[in-house]
């Protein structure tokens, strides 16, 4: 292996900002040193640029079956788009179907991903059918490096678990060290509101947001927290979108409970204004939890600053407007739920730095270091330090770009951020020392990315 030196940049991690050269050897960070001290076979000039860890997106859904169709990004297209956006590790969700084992679900997702990924990947396991066999399987998956398990209080008849099933899984995770991830919405109540809205002829996309009420997210978040407390287990609440849900997390953390939360760029930058766009355009913004009125954004940013929210992931689950989102014309409940975003996260959060919402180091913390720690990948991923994987992004903080479906690399026919101007852009991306993006050209290939087993949650240590 050649030695590569990244020279002249400002190295930013969750804890430090320092002008240093970064030496890469055998796919790992070998050393950081004062500029001009180290030499190498190959030098990358990062003068005037940031040198940051590759992003860790802990919540993606490539090729997810949903509502009679599939997420439009494959593991190949989705991980390539991730690389373009400065993300070098994704954690996707393998799905257990009711009546099937965890093993069958995990094997199916390994088959989808293996040999197809441009960057490294791991898996969480969606647990849809809690029984004695499933609970035993959780122990085995942890040994294989699949250490987190997602349950749903939403989607009755598909992924839904009742409180008893949730409690059993939480009790098991309290014993085996796994982390339960919760989609916290009261799906039983929401289904009643959906039925009533449709009966009134309220079929447009905006009603998706109106029936999935913030109070029902908060109620479910509260219930999940208390069930985890009864079980003596840690809890990670996914895609937190509402002021009231943030308040539940903050209260639990003030009580000293091991409760964590993520939010997503769509909740920080978009709102119900988008869901209400005319001519069915609002369907592009249908996801669950739903977009909220704009006034919720301030509490989400505050939660990120106070660490009541620890992680920003994308919940990347793209469906094309034509032919997929259109399945819900005349009935918002049939619109496939999900937004594209894996390529946009790092840039949007850099814009948030410029807008004064977060600091540069907090940007790296919520996008790289904290997700790596939360899901057992640190310090292999999420930082720039000797011994870490050489997942490194050369980031131009001054380049301006306009987000658009015409220029993005996700396999979807629209951008959730169409026309948005941001400052900051990925220039070069290394994955384990191998250039995947080289000065705004794709130089990676399917199959470079490998499955990365994870330890249990390091955020508790």
Output the strand order for the largest sheet. Answer: 8-11-12-13-14-15-16-17
How can the largest sheet be summarized?
8 strands, parallel
Strand content: 15-25%
- Give the helix proportion (percent range): 25-40%
Distance between the termini: 35 Å
Give the mean pLDDT: 97
**Counted beta strands:** 21
Provide the structure class.
alpha/beta
Number of helices: 13
Can you tell me the residue ranges where pLDDT is under 50 for at least 5 consecutive residues? Answer: none
**What gross morphology would you assign?**
globular
The Rg value, from CA coordinates, equals 21 Å
What tags apply to this protein structure?
7-stranded mixed β-sheet, 8-stranded parallel β-sheet, 13 helices, alpha/beta, 461 residues, 31% helix
Short overview:
The chain has 461 residues and is α/β, with parallel strands linked by helices. It contains 13 helices and 21 strands.
How does this structure look, described?
This protein has 461 residues and is an alpha/beta fold. Helix content is 31%, strand content 23%. The chain has 13 helices and 21 strands. Strand 19 and strand 20 (434-438) form a beta hairpin. The longest helix has 18 residues, at 214-231. The radius of gyration is 21 Å and the shape is globular. The mean pLDDT is 97.
């Amino acid at each position: 292996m050649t030695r590569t030196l990244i020279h002249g940049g400002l190295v930013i991690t969750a804890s430090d900002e320092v002008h240093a050269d970064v030496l890469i050897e055998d796919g790992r960070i070998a050393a950081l040193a004062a500029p001009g001290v180290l030499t190498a076979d190959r030098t990358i000039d990062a003068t005037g640029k940031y040198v940051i860890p590759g992003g860790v997106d802990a919540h993606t859904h490539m090729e997810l079956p949903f509502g009679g169709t599939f997420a439009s990004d494959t593991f190949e297209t989705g991980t390539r788009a991730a690389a373009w956006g400065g993300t070098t590790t994704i954690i996707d969700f393998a799905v257990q179907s009711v009546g099937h084992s965890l093993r069958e679900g995990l094997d199916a997702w390994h088959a989808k991903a293996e040999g197809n990924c441009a960057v490294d990947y791991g898996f969480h396991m969606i647990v849809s059918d809690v029984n004695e066999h499933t609970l035993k399987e959780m122990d085995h998956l942890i040994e294989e490096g699949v250490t987190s398990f997602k349950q749903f209080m939403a989607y009755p008849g598909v992924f839904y678990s009742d409180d008893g099933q949730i409690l059993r899984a939480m009790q098991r995770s309290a014993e085996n060290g796994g982390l339960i991830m919760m989609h916290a919405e009261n799906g039983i109540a929401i289904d009643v509101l959906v039925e009533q809205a449709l009966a009134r002829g309220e079929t447009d996309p905006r009603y998706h947001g109106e029936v999935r009420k913030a109070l029902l997210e908060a109620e479910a978040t509260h219930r999940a927290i208390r069930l985890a407390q009864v079980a003596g287990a840690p809890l990670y609440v996914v895609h937190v979108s509402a002021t009231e849900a943030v308040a539940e997390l903050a209260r639990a953390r003030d009580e000293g409970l091991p409760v964590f939360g993520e939010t997503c760029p769509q909740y920080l930058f978009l709102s119900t204004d988008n869901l209400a766009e005319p001519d069915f355009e609002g369907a592009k913004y249908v996801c669950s939890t739903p977009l909220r009125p704009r006034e919720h954004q301030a509490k989400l940013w505050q939660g990120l600053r106070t660490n009541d929210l620890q992680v920003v992931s994308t919940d990347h689950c793209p469906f094309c407007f034509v032919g997929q989102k259109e399945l819900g014309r005349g009935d918002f409940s049939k619109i496939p739920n999900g937004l594209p975003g894996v390529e946009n996260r790092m840039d949007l959060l850099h814009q948030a730095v410029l807008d004064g919402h977060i600091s540069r180091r907090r940007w790296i913390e919520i996008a790289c270091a904290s997700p790596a720690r939360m899901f057992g990948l640190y310090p292999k991923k999420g930082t720039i330090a000797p011994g870490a994987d050489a997942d490194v992004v050369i980031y131009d903080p001054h380049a301006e770009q306009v987000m658009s479906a015409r220029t993005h690399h996700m396999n979807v026919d629209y951008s959730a951020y169409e026309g948005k101007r941001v400052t900051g852009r990925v220039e070069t991306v290394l994955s384990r020392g191998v250039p995947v993006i080289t000065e705004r050209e794709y130089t990676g290939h399917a199959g470079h990315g490998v499955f990365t087993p994870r330890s249990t949650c390091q955020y508790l240590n």
